[in-house]
Amino acid sequence: MKSEVRKFQQFIQKQNLLWSTEREIIAEQVFDNHFHFTADELFIQLSQKGNNISRATVYRTLELLEKSSLVSKIQLQSGKHLYEHIFGHQHHDHLICQKCGKMIEFHSTDIEKLQKEISAENDFKMTGHCLKIYGICSDCQKEKQINNQSKQKTKPISRS
Amino acid sequence: MKSEVRKFQQFIQKQNLLWSTEREIIAEQVFDNHFHFTADELFIQLSQKGNNISRATVYRTLELLEKSSLVSKIQLQSGKHLYEHIFGHQHHDHLICQKCGKMIEFHSTDIEKLQKEISAENDFKMTGHCLKIYGICSDCQKEKQINNQSKQKTKPISRS
DNA sequence: TTCATATTGAGACTTGGTCTCAATCTTATT
DNA sequence: AATAAGATTGAGACCAAGTCTCAATATGAA
Asked: What is the value of pTM for the model shown?
């Protein structure tokens, strides 16, 4: 059993919940994914490996993983969610490319410090935060120049 | 016609789109709402005023209002969306209370500056950002002390 | 007025996720 | 090992928010 899975097991037991094979299989898969994934992608991965675990259980377990702080849930502008495990590496925020969807991780202790200050000023007990910077990544900025040659003159909005 | 509605009309026309009565009615209502609202709340407000505008049109118009930068869309942790118009007042971020849902607006030029620096470092052309600080507001912190008297000992997770 | 095109309404549909509940599993106790 | 209490599960119904379709209608230019 991976050490992260063991940590999850400890969390489950500390909460007086039961450690099931489903929870173990799901957690193993989560910590195998070294990239962002959606709940449904995870469900499909598990199915393809021959596990007969229901979508409900996948969602339920992701919720527990999130509560255990071993996994974090990222909200996209579209309203969809991605998950990523936190395998020892520190908390981070994201730069998200609006063209290709690429996500670049970053961490700024300066920003975090300012956030704490703002919370304190507002008598607010901060429990978490979410910072996303949207824009166009360097790759897509280059691509744009090519695509621009065929750019439309009229009604760009109704197409986008 | 409110000046914001006129701005929206100008935006629509600049995009070679048509200015319809529905768009005007929706925009008027949006700029009447001096607080956050969901798309559905807006739809209901309009219906109650006797307007027979379909949900699809409300959603479509909100999308245009967002593109015109006169309205911004806020994502909640739950995956739901709120809208708020930007009636001249500057961009701001939010402190969101996880207990009562209250939102406190703030603005930090220091954080914005750091965001720009991070974008530049990553060769990223920033177009926007989204910063939310989650926590418990001062009112709910007080309340908590009362509720705590009846706090549960076992399985807090399965109830929450 | 006419025409080409944009917009609309109604409701079907989609997506992402939650809920229900009987059957099954886990753990503690005998 | 057997039992009992309670937690977990799977299947699929359900839900909410939002999108899509397409015929009917409205808009604006000529």
From this structure: 0.81
Number of domains within chain A: 2
The DSSP letter of residue A100 is T
Write out the residue range of the structural domain in which residue B128 sits.
90-146
DSSP for residue A53: -
Do residues B43 and B101 both lie within one domain? no
Q: How far is the CA of A23 from the C1' of C26 (A)?
A: 13
A29 CA to C24 C1' in angstroms comes to 23
Chain B residue with the nearest C-alpha to that of A77: B75
- Closest approach of B87 to chain A, Cα-based (Å): 23
Show pLDDT as tens, one digit a residue, over chain A (160 residues): 899 999 999 999 999 999 999 999 999 999 999 889 999 999 999 999 999 999 999 999 999 999 999 999 998 878 889 999 987 667 899 999 888 888 999 999 999 999 999 999 999 999 889 999 999 999 998 865 554 433 333 332 222 2
Q: Select from B133, B154, B155, B160 the residue whose CB has the most chain A CBs within 10 Å, as the one to mutate to test that interface.
A: B133
- Strand intervals (E) in B7-116: 71-75, 81-85, 93-97, 103-106
- Give the CATH number for residue B43: 1.10.10.10
Q: How many CB atoms lie within 10 A of CB A60?
A: 14
Chain B: nearest CA to A69, how far in angstroms? 13
